[in-house]
Design brief:
By secondary structure, the protein is of the alpha/beta class. It has 2 domains: 20-76 and 147-237, Rossmann fold, CATH 3.40.50; 86-145. Helices cover 30% and strands 27% of the residues. It is built from 7 helices and 9 strands, in the order βββαββαααβαβαββα. The protein has helices spanning 51-59, 92-97, 105-115, 131-143, 161-178, 189-195, 227-236; strands at residues 11-22, 25-36, 40-45, 66-72, 77-81, 149-153, 181-185, 198-203, 206-212. Strands 5-6-7-3-8-9 form a 6-stranded mixed β-sheet, sandwiched between helices. A 3-stranded antiparallel β-sheet has the order 2-1-4, with helices on one face. β1 (11-22) and β2 (25-36) form a beta hairpin. α3 (105-115) packs across α4 and α4 runs parallel beside α5. The two termini are 28 Å apart.
C-alpha cells in the first residue's frame, strides 16, 4: 500500500548541500534530499558509506561534528537503534512511558505495548526479554510519542532470520496505522525492497541511486518481480549476483 497522495505534498525531511567529515575525511559530500511526509524510505550502502552519519544528522545527534549545509526535519522525531537501549533498571512499561506527560501517559504506554504484541509484559525487566521482544518495546517507546519522523538504524540487524521477518511485518503494519515518515538504515538489500517504497544507495558520500519500488504490499522475498529491483540495487553497490 503506497502512502496517501495528499501526505506526499510536503517534505518531512529536506537536505541541501549536507556535508559531514571526521578527522579530515569527508563522509557526506553535499547531499541533496527530500523525504516526503508519510513515505517509507530505506538507505543502503557499504560500511563507512555515511548511512548512520546521515541518520544521526537528521536526528540532531551529531553536535560538534564538522560539516555544513541546510537540514530541515520535523519537531517530533523518534529513533530506533540496533540495540534496543532499554534502561535495565526500569521495567518495560516504565521504559516506554519515560518522558511522557499527561494523565493518560500510562494508558497510552500500555496501548503501545499491546500494539506491538507485548501485552502482559509490562512488568518485565528488559533483561527478561528476547531480542525480538526488546525491539518491539523499543518500537512501542518510539511510536507512543506519535512521531512525524521515525529513524531506524539497522534495528533488526542483531535478530535471527525468522524474528527479523516477523519484525518486518510488524514495522510495516505500524507504519500503515501511524503514517510517520520512515528513514530506515539497513545493509540488507532484501529488507529494503520488502519494506520500503523508495530505496537510496549512498556511494562515497553521495546518493548514487534513488529507486522507487513500484510494487504493492504485502511483499515477499519470493516475489519474482522484485528480482529486477534487487539487481539494480546490487549493481549500485558494486555487487554482482554471482557474489551476492
Amino acid at each position: 500500500m503506497a502512502p496517501h497522495t495528499e501526505q506526499l505534498t510536503r517534505p518531512a525531511v529536506r537536505l541541501r548541500g549536507l556535508t559531514r567529515s571526521f578527522d579530515g575525511r569527508t563522509v557526506l559530500d553535499g547531499i541533496d534530499l527530500d523525504v516526503p511526509a508519510g513515505q517509507f524510505t530505506a538507505l543502503l550502502g557499504h560500511s563507512g558509506s555515511g548511512k548512520s552519519t546521515l541518520l544521526r544528522a537528521v536526528a540532531g545527534l551529531d553536535h560538534g561534528v564538522a560539516g555544513g549545509g541546510r537540514l530541515t526535519a520535523p519537531e517530533r522525531v523518534s529513533v530506533v537503534f540496533q540495540d534496543s537501549r532499554l534502561l535495565p533498571w526500569r521495567r518495560v512499561l516504565d521504559n516506554v512511558r519515560l518522558g511522557l506527560d499527561g494523565k493518560d501517559a500510562e494508558a497510552r504506554s500500555r496501548a503501545a505495548l499491546a500494539e506491538v504484541g507485548l501485552a502482559g509484559r509490562e512488568r518485565a525487566w528488559p533483561g527478561e526479554l528476547s531480542g525480538g521482544e526488546a525491539q518491539r518495546a523499543a518500537l512501542a517507546r518510539s511510536l507512543v510519542r506519535e512521531p512525524e519522523l521515525l529513524l531506524a538504524d539497522e534495528p533488526f540487524g542483531a535478530l535471527d532470520a525468522l524474528t527479523r521477518i516477523r519484525m518486518h511485518h510488524l514495522l510495516r503494519d505500524l507504519w500503515k496505522r501511524h503514517r510517520p515518515s520512515v528513514l530506515l538504515v539497513t545493509h540488507d538489500v532484501d529488507e529494503a525492497i520488502v519494506l520500503a517504497d523508495r530505496v537510496l544507495v549512498l556511494d562515497r558520500g553521495r546518493i548514487g541511486l534513488d529507486l522507487t519500488i513500484d510494487h504493492p504490499h504485502p511483499r515477499s522475498y519470493r516475489d519474482a518481480v522484485l528480482g529486477e529491483y534487487r539487481e539494480r540495487l546490487l549493481a549500485a553497490l558494486g555487487v554482482t549476483e554471482d557474489h551476492a
